[in-house]
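re the bet — no i am not wrong, look at it urself. input seq straight from the record:
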Amino acid sequence: MQLHRQIEVLFPELRAYAGAICDARHEAQDLVQDAVERAMRAKAPPRRIDELRPWLFRVLRHLHYDELRKRRVRREYSEGERRLLNETPQMGGTERVVLTRMAYAKLPPACREVLFLVDIMGLKYREAAEVMDIPVGTAMSRLSRARRHMLDLLGRDRPHGAGEPSG
């Protein structure tokens, strides 16, 4: 049986499993779509349906946990950024944009690249990893380091008198 036909047969089970592990219906639908896409692009997916079924369930599960990790990292990044903004006096939007762009320009090229792909262009970790031709885990760790580096630069680049003693 061809892969797409096997996936059609398994589709109700995939939707049911995704619905069981996701909080929202639209998340479950997206998860199934991503898993099917991954299966169709796989170089050597299991040929027999009894092997394909658990393989697809694992793909669903891994994609789900990758998404949860991504949300956690973004939430932590946002909280850190909010904390940083709350520690400094309120600066105008233009000043904040200029300082952010200056900090971004100071980042090493690899940090700028991953931040651009994920945070600016909105690519998923997997997509960014494909663009950079690196493993997904490497893309995730580079992004984490790049975000931390960016926050460090923004913290150091605050003007004197902005909540910090001047040397």
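see?? Residues 157-167 have pLDDT under 50 and may be disordered. told u. also Residues 46 and 52 are 5 Å apart (CA to CA). so pay up
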